[in-house]
Amino acid sequence: MPAFPPFPRAAAQAVRDPVLRANLRHATHTIREKRARAVAELSDWEQLREAGRRIKDHTLRHLDRYLEQLESAVTAAGGTVHWAEDAEQAGRIVADLVHATGEREVVKVKSMATQEIGLNEALAAEGIRAYETDLAELIVQLGDDRPSHILVPAIHRNRGEIRDIFRDRMGAWGRPAPEGLGDTPAELAETARLHLREKFLRAKVAVSGANFMVAETGTLVVVESEGNGRMCLTLPETLISVVGVEKTVPTWRDLGVFLQTLPRSSTAERMNPYTSLWTGTTGGDGPRAFHLVLLDNGRTATLADPVGRQALRCIRCSACLNVCPVYERAGGHAYGSVYPGPIGAVLSPQLRGITSEIDASLPYASSLCGACYEVCPVAIDIPEILVRLRERVAEQGGRGHRLERAALRAAGWLLDHPGALAAGERLANATRRAQPRRPPGAAAWTDSRDLPELPEQSFRDWWRSNRR
């Protein structure tokens, strides 16, 4: 993983960018307002939310059994299943599969899993060029940028910036942008369509992820809004899908729940414009070879934590990002991960392990307001996981954490001894005028907060005087 700065440092830089903040504020407010209206149309939304939570929890408890069932079904349908323990192994498997076709380029469907493992970079090291075909991912790729949002990877860019990227960089990747390109959505979309069309018609190999995998039939599902996914999934001769093991659902009936909640939570639509499903291979229709790479990359380690495993319910709708006050101001790049926002703050440290400064800082990238939990379509209690991860960070030690632990132990002793607590309160009240407004060693707290003013009398003494 590249060396990203800790979240506080990255966020401090991001909040000083007025263009970034304006882009984020406009986009997140627009998306969340549309989502709220779409969800309000369903009288049984809470029941669907609970059903999604139960399906995911049941599947995770019996994941070994459902993965074996999935493998058998995919194999029986003509596909080939590969197991990847980590990013390096997954990259090697995909590169070898592409080399076996004799091709040196692939088209890609938008996929968080392939971003997570750095697949584009791994393929480039093997002489294979990967072309992103999702519009937002294309913008990010052409701009030599990083995604900053799960649903809208280029949310940090405005139309003028996108026009400039297309004009300056598109020619190096294929068909150039036309002369005099403007910044209207129609012009930008048409330019991307023409640029990508030649790649769709030429490519022999495609790489995708999947939103869901149905264990009983071996069916994979991709939901998208542009049609680029449909092109990648049907035109090439070889299809390679890299999917996290947690994307499994047991049955088609279970899938029906998520096809109602995902579109409304992500794009505020009643139904995705394109929902593509494929099961193995079919003679004369679609790819002649299908490979499924099942990715672990820290997921089984996450599954071992009874609190943290909730994060594996995530269906990547991004609703939590659009309501988060921290994300709205800091943006996605500050999280140092392909999973930004609240879900990234709990998922990335578990998948990667709390071994770096950025991962140790992510559990603190939250005010614990709980807005993320309220909108999550599978009821992930993100604040609960954040507190659990903060506990794990503290357990690793460090000077600040040792002081915190000592302070909490002292507070615990004091609260267990009412007489000492009462004496301490009276002493604090008696000396309140001499107490500093900025206690030594507390600058990290008092730089952005005012200490509460102590009253002349403690509540304990007031109660004794007025409620005998």
UniProtKB/TrEMBL annotation:
Gene Ontology terms for molecular function: 4 iron, 4 sulfur cluster binding; metal ion binding
Domain LUD residue range list: 67-281
Protein name listed in UniProt: Putative iron-sulfur protein
Region (Disordered) residue spans: 429-452
Keyword Magnesium set for record: no
One Pfam family recorded for the sequence: LutB_C
Keywords of this entry: 4Fe-4S, Electron transport, Iron, Iron-sulfur, Metal-binding, Repeat, Transport
